Predict the 3D structure of the following.
Amino acid sequence: MVTLDRLINVLGGYGVRPLAAVPSRAVELHSVVVHDPVASEVPVGDVLLAVGVRDPRRAVELAVTAQATVVLVHAPREPREPTEPTASPGVEREAVETATRCGVAVLLVDSAVAWSQVCGVVYGLVLEGRETEVGRGPSDLFALADAIATTVGGQVTVEDRLSRVVAYSSLQQDADPARLDTILGRRVSEPVRRLFEERGVFRHLVTSSEPLFVAPSPEHGLRGRMVAGVRAGRELLGSVWVTCDEPLTGRRLRALRDGAEAVALHLLRSRVSSDLERQVESELVIQLLEGTPDAAPLCGKLGLPPETFRVVALQAHADDERHAAVLLAYDRATTGFGWSRPGRSTLFGNTVYTVLPCGDDPAPARAWIAELVRDLPDHVTVAAGIGGVCEVTQLPAGRQEADECLALHVTRPGGEPVDYDAAWSEILLQRLRTAAESGRRPRRGPIVELARHDARHNTHYVPTLRAWLEAQGDLGAASAALGVHPNTVRYRMRRMGELVRLELDDPKTRLALVIALAAAG
């Protein structure tokens, strides 16, 4: 099941915008129908794709006939000639009035986005969305890579925008060293990537839809390549690479273009499927972290083993990007969705929470954080905290510990992630400090009186008492910490006893003084 709100949010990334305010976004969508200009009747369905319709008023009329909740129609394209008429604002106003009166949502599709791509996204959301659970994905890109390779007569790889391999043809005999390194490493090697940047290959992919021939480079182990950008409207999704000794022409070139369009549809559906699966995962993880009596069944749904866990809380920042860094970290944390990842993650506010199967040793959690950081750009800074080991029913406590460790790591920029096992004493003192600060601060008492005396007479009684307590009454250790003679500490302790009632022989009093000093900072 997919709601109208979800459909609008996802399609917003592909050049689709609401024509006007939508009455209710919570309505559920269960079916998709496509307008056929030659059909005598309009089919009935929740989502109507007004293919071939340019007038939004006509699209609304069709939606009413189809009993549709939402209709998608191509936005009027920009005029190609100065004398060509533009769309009248009155047309959209009339469409909005009719849609509002009839309770139909109208979504305008960017004129650069093909209907084939829109159909793939909408069908993937509405029809596959209600079936999608953990581990289910769209059609096989490897089979498509094989089909392209057979048609063009060359080895094929499909890569995403970051030059990571997402699929490749099975026929890789006589592959050059650069291609083998790319497939084995699952991404283009850094020397070859620099070569492509120097030759302007990536710049061409961003700005042009035309396939480009990349000349051989024997010193890089590179034979000739033909590359075509994979696009969704104006957005570059990835690229298709074919090994060839000379530029493709005629039928083979057309096959590469057609193959790139087919890959675009697959990548779009893959993205939608991944988004839906991430949403399912995120909601289940939030339930675990907030506490639920159904914790064990939820772990089963997420594919987590019946073991002990640790919660990792992670924040990412970049100087010039307010939200992009944490979104990128969340994307990396959920890459490889399904049963291959050790943990399950959610993005809550500006923090990525991950539930990791982990025992008494926090090393696997540290390794997971380090691997994620390696995949992030160099300018992104990361702070992370690792909660203590816990059972599935104790995950809310594990989340609190992870948050407290994260807060501690934020105060130590550049250091290693903080784990609860190593930092529990600091976190306990912070909890006591917070509890003391949240209540009514005492206006009288030993610490308050000594602090007031220090301020008036320029004495150092509070630091001395702190050092004495931390040294557990050892005058030598306390004096070394303060950088004074032991007799000075002995004198100050005697004077404090004359000024206030300390009762240092009482263990409860000593503990209260430690808490009060921690609260005082």
In short: The first helix runs from residue 4 to 11. Residues 80-86, 130-139 have pLDDT under 50 and may be disordered.
